[in-house]
Amino acid sequence: MKICYLIQTHKNIEQIYRLVKVIKHSSPQSYIYIIHSPTKFKLTQEQFSEFNDIQITNIKTQLGDFSLTQGYFDCIEFLVKHNIDFDWLINLSGQDYPTQPLLKIEKFLQNTSYDAFAEYFDALSPQNPWQIGLGRQRYFYHYWRASQELTNWQKILIKPIKNLVNASPLKVKIETSYALAIGKELKHTPFHQKYICYGGSYFVTLSKKCVMYLYEVFSTNKYLIQHYKQTSQAEESLIQTILVNSDLFRILNNNHRYVDFKGSKYGHPRILTTQDYDALLNKEIHFARKFDIHQDTKILDLLDKLICR
After folding, report:
1. Do residues 169 and 264 both lie within one domain?
2. Containing domain of residue 24, as a range?
3. DSSP assignment of 139-197, as one string?
């Protein structure tokens, strides 16, 4: 059993190193592929030279656009073209952390009858966990996007205009979660009654056969991929849309991740602390996010005792 971990990072070298260290010490045979957005600093192979089977790529990513999703498929392409052996692909952010021993997770994956663990739902269903209309706004519009993220005060200034435009009958939407984005509604999309637009968390655990199917679709279905490249937050739809519509895989609608958006702003989950420790003991949770060692490092110390026991 060999797991490949895709870790997408953008800050805090100490925390990135700590995550890599706990993975490699707990699962030495694992492969780690890091995509780092070097807005604050670059990562080098030398910084992780004590570990084997680790690949570092520095490339700028911007939340909201296709770059995060592109990174996921760049990782898959690298694995395929370099004949990297793996059984499962698990994607994490640099602020994720395991909540139980990796060997236990690997044994679970080795024995499972499922092909994937991923949250998914009909993006247009009124019962989905998103705000009403958000799925249509994201994936049935094509967007022009500014190159820089908005500051919080810029978001506040733009909010009245955004609310006015988005509530109007105009077939235009404004998004300000990350960079300013202006979208125009499409007359035609890849979606129809037999090809549903699905949404769900970007963080998934996929078997190799799911990964290879994603690679095939990404390489051949240019219409679908080009459509998603112009949408908003494609990472929360494309993987689910491809896999669930295929009807080829057993997918459990549970990604075994813990995240808490309670009290969060601008789509960012709450920082987890020692006060969340009891919640993280749930055996259904494999990984949690997000953590920040500058706010609370003790929670990671407590998790290390669980992971390394």
Report:
1. no
2. 3-122+199-307
3. HSEEEEEEEEEPPHHHHHHHHHHHHHHHHSSSSEEEE-SSEEEEEEE-S--S-BTTB--
Residues 221 and 97 occupy one common structural domain: yes
Q: What is the mean pLDDT of residues 210-218?
A: 99
What per-residue confidence (pLDDT) applies to 131? 86
Does the residue 277 lie in any domain? yes
Do 71 and 95 lie in one domain? The reply is: yes
In this prediction, residue 94 carries a pLDDT of 97
Contact (Cβ atoms closer than 8 angstroms) between residue 287 and residue 96:
yes
The pLDDT tens digits for 78-130 are 999 999 999 999 999 999 999 999 999 999 999 999 999 999 999 999 889 99
Determine contact, residues 45/56, Cβ cutoff 8 Å: yes
Please, are residues 269 and 259 in contact by the beta-carbon 8 Å criterion? yes
| 217 and 242 housed in the same domain | yes
Question: Does residue 207 share a domain with residue 149?
Answer: no
- Phi and psi, residue 32, nearest 5°: -120, 130
98 and 222 together in one domain: yes
- Regarding pTM above 0.90, the answer is yes
* Whole-Å CA distances, 270 to 144, 256, 258, 264, 292: 29, 18, 11, 6, 10
User: 129 with 57: CB under 8 angstroms?
Assistant: no
Q: 299 Cβ partners below 8 Å, 6+ apart?
A: 272, 273, 274, 276, 277, 291
In a domain, 192, yes or no: no
Answer yes or no: is 132 within a domain.
Answer: no
